[in-house]
Please model this.
Amino acid sequence: MIWAAVLAGSIGCYLLKLAGLSVPPRILENKLVQRIAAALPVALLSALIVIQTFTSGHRLTLDARAAGLAVAVVAVALRAPFLVVVGGAAVTAALIRLIF
Amino acid sequence: MNTEIQPDRRSIVRDAVGIGVATGAYGLSFGAISVASGLSMLQTCALSLLLFSGGSQFALVGVLGAGGSAVAAAGTAVLLGSRNALYGLRLAPLLRVRGLKRATAAQLVIDESTAMAVGRDSPRAARLGFWSTGLSVFVLWNLGTLLGGLGAQSLSNPEVLGLDAAVPAAFLALLAPRMRARQPWVVALAAAAVALVAVPFVPAGVPVLLAAATAALLVLRGRGDGGRNDSDSTDSTDAAVEAK
Model:
C-alpha cells in the first residue's frame, strides 16, 4: 500500500512537471488557474500543520507537538533558518515529553 | 561586458551549490521523518529520487504516517505538486528543451531551480541557474535523505526526539513566506478550520483534501483573492527561495 502511494505520487508529480514544460503558455494567462494554483499550497500546508499538530487518529488532541509548533512559529517570525525552525520544534517536544 | 560574464556565471553556480547544501540539510529531516512515519529505507529513497519535490514528499509521508490511504496520500502530494506545472510554464520559453532533455529537465522543475532561473538577464544565465541548481539540489537532497533515513533507522522510538513535532514545523517553514498578504490568511484559516472539523468524521488524509477543495471554492467565489487581481505565480517562486 505504501508502494502504491509512492509510485502514484511520483508519477502524478512528474506528469505535472512535464505538462508545465509541454503545454502552450496561454494557460498561464488564465487568472483563475493562477489564483487556484496560488491558493492550493497555502490551504494544503495550513491543513497539514493543524492535522499533524492537533490530531491523533480521529481525535483532536493537545500535546507536546503544540509546544513544538509554538516554538516553530516564533522561529519563523524571527526569520530563523529552516533547520532551526524544524530542530527547535523537535527539541521542544522531546524536552516536554522528557519532563512530564 | 565580457569581463563581467565569467564572475556572474561563477556566482550562479556558487549560489546553486549553496542552495543544494541547504536543501541537503532539509533532506536529512525528510529522510528521518519518512522512516519514522513507517516507510522503509527503499521507499524513502525512492520518493526523493522519483517524486523529488520536498513539500509533496513531506505531505505524502505525513498522510501515510497518520493512517491515511494510499489514494489520500498520493492525492495530497499531487495537489501540492501542481505548482510545479506553473513553474514549468514559466520555464519552458527560457529552457527551450525537447525530447529526452525535456524529460530530464521536467524532473528538476522545483521551487529552487525555478527561483534561480526566472528573472535572469539572459536566457543563457537562466538555463545555467536552472540546471546547476536543479542538479545540485537533486544530488544533495537524495544524499541527505539517505543519511537522515539511516539515522532514524538506528533510533528505537522517534517520538523521543520529537520528530513527529518536526513535521508541522517543516510545513510552517514552507507556508510562512506565502503569508505576506491578506488573501492567503483567509485561505489558510478556512482550510485549517475545515480540516480540523472533518477529522473525527472522515477517513485519515481526506481532511487535507477537503481543505484543498475549500481553497478552490473560496477562489471561485472571489473571496480568496482579497478583491485584487495582482496574484502572480512569481509570488510563490520568490516565496520559495526565501524559504531556504
About this structure: Chain B touches chain A through 110 residues (CB under 8 Å). Confidence is low (pLDDT under 50) at residues 226-244 of chain B. DSSP finds twelve helices and no strands in chain B.
